[in-house]
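Reopening this ticket.

The earlier resolution said the output was attached, but the attachment link was broken on my side. Pasting everything inline this time so it's all in one place.
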Amino acid sequence: MLKLDISELLHQMEKSIELTTQLSLDQEKELVSDIKLLLMAVLLMNKLQLAEILDIYDISEPEGIKLLARLDRMQMIELQPGNRVKLMISQNFEWIPGGPIQRFFEDRVQLEFLNSSFNGAGEFRVFVSGMISRNANSELIKKIHQLAQEMNDMNQESESLPLEQRFGTSLMMAIRPWEINVFEDLRRSRDTRVFR
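Inline output:
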């Protein structure tokens, strides 16, 4: 009657569910305390099924089910019959500033991510410098947020494709009022301006 098939209807219902946009400190601590738990959470957020995860990673089925149960207790997922999963956290949730996930990212992920020439297929890096106003800085931050949302939308659009056609992909963009140390060392006097 509504010209929707059951999968479209379920997808619309899932979209209407209020998902958590920020984990608690305890949730973040637990996630980063166990690499396999963190891996499981990331893969589930990228819409892999338990069977696919078990095929790709060195996780046994009993271990995988225990990890799912932990994520269920943490209220990050709802474990359903047949070890199916309903996500209870938004794909673009925000880290706690200075929290365990951010520290994990800074200590373990960031340097590894940047340790690349970015010349391979599908890789791209751009670094632009300039002297811009506070308003221009604010406008660029808005555009970065928009680009991040576009990537999240593309991630959702790609969910229906077979796993063989999807690739783990990371995008990192950063902006901050900053001057490289070797340039700052050449200043005659310290820059006392405060960016607010």
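Reporter confirms the inline version is readable. Residues 134-158 form the longest helix (25 residues). Residues 20-91 form one domain.
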